[in-house]
Amino acid sequence: MLSLDKNRFGNSEIYISKLGFGAGEIGDFNISDNDAEKILTKAFDLGINFFDTARGYFASEDRIGRFLSSKRKDIVLSTKIGYGIAGIQDWTYDSIIAGVDEALKKLKTDYIDIVHLHSCDKGILEQGDVINALLKTVEAGKVLVPAYSGENESLKYAVECGAFKSIQSSINITDQFSLRNIIPEAKRKGMGVIAKRPIANAPWKYPTKPIGSYVEEYWSRWQKLAIATDITPAELFIRFSVFAEGVSTAITGTANLEHLKTNISYVNKGPLPVDVLSEVKNKYDSASDNWPGEI
Questions:
Q1: CA-to-CA distance for 178 and 246, rounded, in angstroms?
Q2: Considering just the CA atoms, what is the radius of gyration of the chain in Å?
Q3: Does pTM surpass 0.85?
Q4: What pLDDT, in 10s, does the model give residues 62-75?
Q5: Number of neighbours of residue 163 by Cβ within 10 angstroms
Q6: Which residues of the chain have pLDDT under 50?
Q7: Which domains does the chain have, with CATH numbers?
Q8: Contact, 43 vs 292, CB < 8 A?
Q9: Are 193 and 248 in contact (CB under 8 A)?
């Protein structure tokens, strides 16, 4: 039977499955409510207790609220805010307060475990209004862990400023900037770390460079790395990210039950063999020019 171990989420009292569910895909209106309910409830049954969504993921927050609210005491909810509130300017104090309140309603809960400011730039963070608003929701008991999702200099500022207790960042074989340059400090500070895009949008699936696709940059990097191993790319990527130093959980999104089961089976194999991990790191050292994180 498939199951998943849990990690402590930074210095918090939250324990989180090593593989989390990224709920962006099930927010697509082309996926039926019935199919979304099936994959969400099955993910829970298979041992996933962490569900990550965002205001911008269309039907995602609403579907999580409708289909998982009965399991609220056994799951960890994460969302991302800062924009898209009718009548309120994006990335203002009021947009954060309203964003949390709307997420609470959609998720059908009176608190959210982790709330991220969703990829706003460093300049907005430095102004302080959005951070102060998020901390206000923590004081009110609406949010347990104030967090930031983003990359590069903005993420570095979020870690160093001391306001956040958690971060979310792109972490995979082709995207190691945060892992090497920022996450060590986050770990030292006892922050929770959520790795997004652990499979880098599956660049190995494309025989030629996909033009106009979000996987384009990852494809180019994967070609340059030319990693040779008997482990399949999907397994290689997932085990790398899930067990990367400092990572609390890695989130994958799917509406396909068999894909979900396969991903869990990869995690249950544990960390990559030492020789394979060395190959990955050596190839990255040789091929990359300190590639920036992909937002």
A1: 11
A2: 18
A3: yes
A4: 999 999 999 999 99
A5: 20
A6: none
A7: 6-209+230-273 (3.20.20.100)
A8: no
A9: yes
